[in-house]
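Comment thread on ticket #2218

A.B. wrote:
> Attaching the input chain for the structure job we discussed in standup.
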Amino acid sequence: MKAFQLIEWQKAPKLCDVPIPEPGPGQVLIKVGGAGACHSDLHVMEWPAGSLPYCLPFTLGHENAGWIEQLGSGVQGFSIGDPVAVSGPWGCGHCYNCRLGIDIYCENGASVNGGAAGGGLGLDGGMAEYMLVPSERFLVSLSTLAPKEAAPLTDAALTPYHAIKRSLPLLSPRASAVVIGVGGLGHMAVQILRALTSVQIIAVDIAENKLRLAAEAGADATMLSNQDAPAKVAELTRGQGAAVVIDMVGSDATLAMAAKMVRKMGHLTVLGLGLGTLPFSFSTVPAECAVSFPYWGSLPELMEVIALAERGGIKSLNTYYSLDRAQDAYESMRAGTTQGRAVIVPNE
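C.D. wrote:
> Ran it. Output below, let me know if you need it in another format.
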């Protein structure tokens, strides 16, 4: 089968011929219907050799959905042909966090899977015709969603959903929330805020087309990301600042801007991997403001995200690419021209 693999650090991935994996006991082979291309993949590609505990080569794609092709012995609760979404983080399954479904914070993460986080992040992911999943525990059944529609929800929706749920006590109808960066995650964050709360939603981005996307997704106000944005947020919030600011970029510039937008006792949540830093002092962050960097989400939350999407509460705007055009998806992402989420569709 064909697979889009990272072969060398700091080199472009390649489309390779690899064997179709055979599922062992407890494992499941998935025929891939869609694999989301995430901006974090670009960081993985560019990381210096030895910086990540991942062994090369591996197939990219950590946002995946498809149909069950083959069941290993002992697998229960699923049948051949079932459409499923795949939970991305693969933990040990035995520690306290994994038993809560929070595999991304597996207490044995350093030793499980050789330090790999999951399929597409150190282990073979979904940018291939077939994908091997180590346990049915990582599968979420789909009913009305096509796999290519569901695939990006496993990260691009799950990550902001997890972050927003943590901040729900602050998101009263009198409050405001700011989303900085309206890309694959940002346009989902706007929709999730609209579905779960009645807050005023303010979207900030450097591109006018992304701001139009934010308005279509449910933002109440939009503005360009520049030196005037904090003052505009202050005006929209009657001088109080936003209860929650979610930074989807994470650069030095956006973190500094976010700190000027958030209110006292607010939440400044960083989801972007821009590798920026935020100086912490009495003068840079409002009093009692919590700064956090939540990562991905839990398996129960993924089930909630899928249910929300299947009820029509959220919908990912996807741009689809065939497997042999996977590199084009990443080049579009580098150029900032991707609308919504890029999704690789290997079997169409």
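A.B. wrote:
> Thanks. Noting for the ticket: The two ends are 14 Å apart (CA to CA).
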